[in-house]
Amino acid sequence: MHPDDVFILAIESSCDDTAAAVLCNNKVLSNVVARQNIHEEYGGVVPELASRAHQQNIVPVIDVALKKANIPKNQLSAIAFTQGPGLMGSLLVGSSFAKSLSMALNIPLIAVHHMHAHILAHFIDEEGFEKPAFPFLALTISGGHTQIVKVSSFFDMEILGETTDDAVGEAFDKTAKILGFPYPGGPLIDQFAKEGNPKKYTFTKPKVPNLDFSFSGLKTQILYFIQKNVLENPNFIEENKNDICASVQNIIIEILMDKLKMAVAQTGITQIAIGGGVSANSGIRQTLLDAQNKYGWKTFIPKFEYTTDNAAMIGIVGYHKFLDDKFVDQSIFSKARIEF
Ligand code: KG4
Ligand code: ZN
């Protein structure tokens, strides 16, 4: 251990995952996530149940993160937590805990924007993973967001385009719900799509100007398509599950790629980093890899465990804010919506 080493305890509780991580500088010592299965039967996250589960999980999750990292509390340099955006009842559990612990240990407190963290997860030091150079474009795709961001430095980010309605994760999850899969259905669509024909069914792409996205029309299109076919053949979903999933995933990837190509043309930036839960999708990952040869882009795909919500990504932002003395005091409050 070096006397200048920075040890950050990071806490993420913006939605339905309770997560804690310990970082030494830009390296992850532990990264613990407690997923909440309780929402599966409701077809989506139930905010009240999420905050209750965070309340139960937060102490053991932080305890395990510290033990795995083998770092005693008094060695921590600062506590970083997700300030927003997210579900208020969920955010409050993480922020209250972070504020109390920073006061008890008398160490600085760092507030982190959840979407900045999905982007800056690329700066976690991991063998075999290169870090992007500034400026680069980030495609952040999650259950709540779909954005193309120009990232000029750690703290200078500009949204170039975003969804005007549903997020891309919702397009996956709502399609999955129509098909009768449990929540969150994105990973299941990914799994079935691997065995299917992506050209079997065609859907039309939304016409949205500039670099913005829209996914609500696609969802309705898929709903009508399924209803019509099930009326003709009650076993339609079961018999064609793989092809339906592959075709839906294919159109979603095309929509994302169309806008990325536009963003590259507009900015001249050819370094592309993806982030957010949907960047776990194997079809999206492969398409971005192929884009390196196809379009001459340099693409950055995060390690799988840093795609869906996790606290290591909060920790890496915490580390860079620590180096920049970007601290907050006890008057900080959680924000369900928060400026970028
Ligand atoms: O970033 P995240 O964990 O939480 C939010 O901040 O929203 O993203 C969750 C979203 C869900 O919509 C989930 O279905 C989707 O990411 N997702 C996937 C895959 N894994 C997670 N979507 C498609 N394919 C996947 N493999
Ligand atoms: Zn997220």
Short recap of the structure:
The chain is an alpha/beta fold. It is built from nine helices and ten strands.
Topology (SSEs and partners):
Elements: E1 7-12, E2 17-24, E3 27-35, H1 47-69, E4 78-84, H2 88-105, E5 109-113, H3 114-120, E6 136-141, E7 146-153, E8 156-162, H4 168-178, H5 186-193, H6 216-232, H7 236-267, E9 271-275, H8 282-295, E10 298-300, H9 312-323
Parallel strand pairs: 1-4, 4-5, 6-9, 9-10
Antiparallel strand pairs: 1-2, 2-3, 6-7, 7-8
Bound molecules: 5'-O-[(R)-(carboxyoxy)(hydroxy)phosphoryl]adenosine (KG4) and zinc ion (ZN).
Zinc ion (ZN) binds at residues 114, 118, 142, 276-277, 309.
Structure description:
- Helix content is 42%, strand content 19%.
- It has 340 residues and is α/β, with parallel strands linked by helices.
- The protein has 2 domains: 7-121 and 307-323, ATPase, nucleotide binding domain (Nucleotidyltransferase, domain 5, 2-Layer Sandwich), CATH 3.30.420; 132-301, ATPase, nucleotide binding domain (Nucleotidyltransferase, domain 5).
- The strands form 2 sheets. The protein has a 5-stranded mixed β-sheet with strand order 3-2-1-4-5, with helices on both faces.
- Helix 3 crosses helix 9 (312-323) and helix 4 (168-178) runs parallel beside helix 6.
- The model has no long low-confidence stretch (mean pLDDT 96).
- It binds 5'-O-[(R)-(carboxyoxy)(hydroxy)phosphoryl]adenosine and zinc ion (ZN).
- Residues 15, 142-144, 169, 172-173, 184, 186-187, 190, 276-278, 280-281, 308-309 line the site of 5'-O-[(R)-(carboxyoxy)(hydroxy)phosphoryl]adenosine.
